[in-house]
Write a structure and sequence with these properties.
The protein has nine helices and no strands. By secondary structure, the chain is mainly α. It has one domain. It is globular, with a radius of gyration of 18 Å. The two termini are 17 Å apart.
Length: 257
């Protein structure tokens, strides 16, 4: 099982960083066009992984008598990620809205870059723990969770690179640091494996927290960004791509089942 976790966390981190790097080769207009579509797809994939894959597995593991405990774990997970977002560990501190930066623009740019790297490293470490919890429960669940997390990571890593370049890092240095922060998911996977395999009774609740993280990111971060585009054509495209994200996760569930 450890081999599955290491492979999933490595491939997820490396793939998201590599694809984000490839996006930099595209013209800025093309990147701007693709990014909202990727976010729509990721929204569907994350919600489906949480509500179709993770939560039913957690409820089945504990039985109907402890469904409320699973609900409490989901609530606790949402509260946790809200607090982390407030502490600028989950959501990146955007340059134009961060009040704690230096008043000098160059210093603000550099500070934003390092904050993004730190926040992304912690974020990916959490992702690794959640992937480990999913694989320890079931290989199928681990694959589905990895797919959903990777779908979210690709547009996020692209945004990270843009911030790092804006922070006056060279492209080579920005790519290196972005890839390094992506691969902290491997450390999280190792931590999750050794911590959770000794306490298997905790796994359903760890899975519930994993579901909470996917729901929180989709609802608090991704969906509000989709609502910024209000024209009917964009709305139809968003619904279709969210449906595609759901379909990919459901298809993976059935194929692996």
């Amino acid at each position: 099982m450890l081999a599955w976790i290491l492979l999933a966390t490595f491939l997820g981190g490396a793939l998201s960083a590599a694809l984000a790097s490839m996006f930099l080769l595209l013209p800025e207009s093309r990147r701007s066009w693709l990014l909202p579509h990727l976010i729509s797809f990721a929204t569907g994939a994350m919600l489906a992984a949480a509500l179709v894959g993770l939560l039913p597995e957690a409820i089945e593991s504990v039985g109907p008598q402890r469904v409320q405990a699973i609900g409490a774990a989901v609530l606790a997970g949402i509260a946790l990620f809200f607090v982390l977002e407030k502490l600028v560990l989950w959501r990146h501190c955007h340059l134009e809205s961060c009040e704690s930066h230096s008043p000098h623009e160059a210093h603000r740019d550099r500070a934003a870059g390092w904050i993004v790297l730190f926040g992304d490293g912690v974020h990916n470490g959490f992702d690794g723990v959640l992937i480990a919890a999913a694989f320890l429960t079931d290989v199928k669940l681990g694959v589905v969770t990895t797919l959903a997390i990777t779908a979210h990571e690709i547009p996020q890593e692209l945004g990270d690179l843009a911030v790092l370049l804006h922070a006056r890092m060279s492209p080579r240095r920005a790519l290196f640091f972005n890839a390094a922060s992506s691969l902290t998911s491997i450390l999280g996977g190792l931590l999750g494996y050794f911590a959770l395999r000794r306490t298997l009774d905790v796994l359903p609740y760890a899975i519930s927290v994993a579901a909470a993280s996917l729901i929180y990111v989709a609802v608090a971060d991704l969906i509000p960004s989709l609502h910024r585009r209000v024209d009917p054509r964009a709305g139809v495209a968003q619904v279709l791509l969210i449906g595609c994200g759901v379909a990919v996760i459901v298809a993976a569930e059935r194929w692996l089942g």
